[in-house]
Amino acid sequence: MDYQKIYKSIDDKQEEYFDIARKMYENPELAYNEVKACEWIAESLKRHGFEVETGVYGIATAIRATWGKGHPIIGVLAEYDALPGLSQKQNTAFDPVIPGGPGHGCGHNLLGVATLAGAIAMKEDLEANGLEGTVVYYGCPAEEVVTGKPFMARGGAFKELDLAIAYHPGGKQGVSGGVMCGLNSAIFHFKGKTAHAGGNPWQGRSALDAAEIMSVGANYLREHIEDGIRIHYAYKEAGTAPNIVPDRASVWYYVRAFTRDAVESTYNRLVKCAEGAAHMTETELEVEFLGGCYETLPNATIARVLHDSLEEVPLVEWTEEEKAWADAMNKNSALYKGEDVEPFNDKLEPISYERGSGSTDVGDVQHIVPCAMYTTTTANNLCGGHTWLITCCAGNSIGFKGMLRGAKIMAVSAGKFYRDPALVKEAKENFEKDMAGKTYKCPIPDDIAIPQPK
Ligand SMILES: [Zn+2]
Fold it and tell me: Quick one: CA dihedral 202, 207, 210, 216, positive or negative?
């Protein structure tokens, strides 16, 4: 495999890629509303010869684009949604464009475009070398609410693949071999009866009481769940004034655990807390199930191939200006403790088998086909996760250069699988072993509607 040719395919089009990533940084769109991002990426895929469908699987902003024929069929998983509240200008200190506005605090603009550049380089590699194989670019909306890929899977996505590769930008280089949590997300709405809280409270039935009692129940439940299971919540609606008995209250819960079974059994017990609270307070309960995802299941073969590629593909050469920018950001990070710190963390660690208590809906894909995920450095050393620092670097040369390295690792890794059927076979055998006794069942029931753009 001619690595230089793959690098050139990506470097030659860097202005096009930087332009799309910059536009996405300037127009951050939240989950299920990634209308422009979807359009810009779909346009580029078409221009580069892919057959492109948008609005697939009933999701307005999902993309399925293919090139090539025959096996192996390799999928690449793109995301492009922003996060609320993480708007940030090009400034090394916290400085939102719109206070409280959305921003790419997880770098998904870089994720979507690295995957685009990777897919195009995979196509050009197949084409130039007359190799058999197919590239599938999946544009996966709404990762930040971890339901995009489960909804796509419900619609039949991913199972056509021999294997999939997932990339994520961030503060370091590496491949995760450890398990991240599965999750369920639901809002519990209580409906009571209002009354004057001073005048005739006996006629009121407080929805807020119900929400609070549910949370008391949930907090007692914590004693009787296995280690590592997380339950967290935020109030969405909690009354308007003390002298009005609240007739509406809503509380939003996440349940996270390292197996799908543990998520579901804990979630079912949480629903009992809500039902009990409604019973006690003579209020009505409505459960709005928003969705859920699987825990991750990194494929050992793909993880190894990705890690090799992370070693082989040259690191980004940072300019003095970029280093100074990253230094200034490190000093403004909440993680800074006055220590000497390198501007960037470019050290490649061995494959990490640590458990992570975060979640990603890449886990669903990993229960359908062999798949693993890697990261490249696209931000300053102390950027943290879901921060204004990540947003800032996602809009400048630091993020853009890290993104191109991400694309190169993707295309080089895919090139190894396209050239070596035994490697594909090994990935599949590992997948069969990992899935022994398990079957994938979409965590989102058929009657839950897919959110549409607002
Ligand atoms: Zn992310």
Answer: negative
Q: How far is the CA of 356 from the centre of ligand 1 (A)?
A: 14
Give 399-417 pLDDT, tens digit per residue.
999 999 999 999 999 999 9
Where do the CATH 3.40.630.10 domains begin and end in the chain? Answer: 3-178+296-434
Q: Measure 128 CA to ligand 1 centroid, in angstroms.
A: 33
Report how far ligand 1's centroid is from the alpha carbon of 226 (Å).
Answer: 27
Say how many Å lie between the CA of residue 62 and the centre of ligand 1.
16
Contact by Cβ (8 Å): 167, 409: yes
Q: What average pLDDT does the segment 134-145 reach?
A: 97
Q: Where in the chain is the domain with CATH 3.30.70.360?
A: 182-293
pLDDT of residue 357: 84
Report the separation in Å between the CA atom of 108 and the middle of ligand 1, taken as the mean of its atom positions: 6
How close is the Cα of 106 to the center of ligand 1, in Å? 5
| Dihedral pair phi/psi, residue 82, rounded to 5° | -100, 175
Q: What class is the 3-178+296-434 domain?
A: alpha beta
Whole-number Å distance, alpha carbon 339 to ligand 1 midpoint, is 28
Under 8 Å between Cβ of 142 and 148: yes
Whether 72 contacts 163, CB under 8 Å: yes
Q: Is residue 389 over pLDDT 90?
A: yes
385 pLDDT above the threshold of 90: yes
Distance 107 CA to ligand 1 centre (A): 7
User: Mean of the pLDDT values across residues 206-232?
Assistant: 97
End-to-end Cα distance, the chain: 46
pLDDT in tens, 86-113: 999 999 999 999 999 999 999 999 999 9
* Helix, strand, coil % over all residues of the chain, rounded to 5: 40, 20, 40
Dist. CA 243 → ligand 1 center (Å): 43
**Residue carrying structure tokens 């230089």:** 4
pLDDT at 360 over 90: yes
- For every residue of 313-343, DSSP letters joined together read SPPP---HHHHHHHHHHHHTSTT--S----S
The topology under which CATH files domain 182-293 is Alpha-Beta Plaits (3.30.70)
* Across 321-326, average pLDDT: 98
Query: Could you tell me the distance, in angstroms and rounded to a whole number, from the CA of residue 168 to the centre of ligand 1?
Result: 7
Expressed in angstroms and rounded, the spacing between residue 82 Cα and the centre of ligand 1 is 9
The stretches of 197-349 forming alpha helices (DSSP H) are 207-221, 260-281, 300-312, 320-331
